Amino acid sequence: MAPPEPAVPAGPPAKPWYRQLYFWVLTAIVTGIATGWLWPAAGAALGPVGTTFVAAIKMLIAPIVFLTIVTGIGGVDSLGRVGRVGLKSLAYFQAGTLLALLLGLLAVNVFQPGVGVHADPGGLRLEGDAARYADRGSDQSWWHFLTDLVPSSAAGAFAEGNVLQVIFFSVLFGVALKTVGPAGQPIVDGVARLGTVVFKILHYVMLAAPVGAFGAMAYTIGTYGVSTLTSLGRLIALFYGTSLVFVVVVLGGVTALLRISFFRLLHHLREEFLLVLGTSSSESALPRLMVKLEGLGIRRDIVGLTVPTGYSFNLDGSSIYLSLAAVYIAQATDTPLGLGRQLGLLAVMLLTSKGSGGVTGAGFIALAATLSAVGTVPAAGLMLIFGVDKFMSECRALTNLAGNSVATLVVARWERVLDSARVNEILRAGRTARPLTRSPDPVPRRSAHN
Questions:
Q1: Angle at the Cα of 135 (from 339 to 324), degrees rounded to 5?
Q2: Within the chain, what is the greatest distance between any pair of CA atoms?
Q3: Where is the chain membrane-spanning (predicted)?
Q4: Could you tell me the mean pLDDT of each successive run of 10 residues in the chain, 450 residues long?
Q5: What CATH number corresponds to the domain at position 316?
Q6: Is 164 a member of any domain?
Q7: Domain residues for 70?
Q8: φ, ψ for residue 440 (rounded to 5)?
Q9: What are the C-alpha distances in Å from 119 to residues 115, 334, 384?
Q10: What is the pTM of this model?
């Protein structure tokens, strides 16, 4: 007879709905939209409110990534396990990126939103922020995410908030602590205690989340106007629809194979999704996402390596945007783009989609880098979509968040430490279990299929 499943540790009593963070963030988003629509000048002036909140979150990302990775590596019983987790994460990221790019190409070829626009490339001029982002994109080579991986100084990686460089240093630091043996254990314990303090700071910062979401949404609507949404409505609708199909069908199918309720998972992460929707930045939810995934019983080293790395290498929403936008520009400028050239675009986008997470205008910069590298689609066509790029950034960030959440579950299953029954029990209870600070023994294969 199989032993009974371990009980889910009881969390704090559930708060009333009107005291939940998601309620106040949602209220702030609606209020921000109304403010930007009714009083555009006032809405546009609220931009610093949103950017200040996002800056406060970004202030904590590098320390949280460092502390999580170091304590995760310090808690594993084998350094080989760390290497396995990293390689499996990268393999899944590449497969997810390829599926997202292919889905975007399929959608834009079937619905052809740019056909009939007949824009003259010679009459298009890149100006303002569009020109600045395009210049940054044209300066990036396909291998830039590899050459930028090693920081010039450890302090510089933290000061600049470069997540990839922080990951690189954190892994080296954690491996070094593990290899020195007992001498490194006090430092691991100290890092774990420091993590408790940093997450308490995060709790204080999150109290301002509704204010930040209000300011960011009011600025977006007040600056760009609701009418901007209708000017390129077909492209926007296709992008949102394609992303929804990817999330529900592809990611939902993956979680179904894991025997985990996908919609309960989305509900469990509702506060993070609303935060991303309000701020247009998936980074704003990264620290809380890591905490919640650990609370589902996922090993700390898996969360610490998969989630931050996924923010640079597993950008499903950005990949869909790249393929849709590139072919849309070709259609709108009457640029012939046959199957061979589209496959060439796909190969380049597999590389240019990496390493841009967390950079302002990251999706637009990656698109500019793609068009500059290929040369078959006029880069000046970027001006056609720049006006509505802000409204598509929310969808990119939401899809990226969903993709990285599912990726962490997949890697945990691949490592045979995902207890699907326990995860579903936590999701049904609606409470987060106490995070695992040490690595549990691998879950037998049979329990993962219960």
A1: 30
A2: 75
A3: 21-39, 59-79, 91-111, 163-180, 201-226, 238-260, 320-339, 359-386
A4: 42 58 78 87 84 78 79 70 81 90 91 76 52 50 59 78 76 83 82 82 80 80 65 80 94 94 91 82 80 89 84 84 87 81 81 58 69 71 70 84 93 90 88 48 40
A5: 1.10.3860.10
A6: yes
A7: 17-449
A8: -75, 165
A9: 10, 8, 9
A10: 0.72
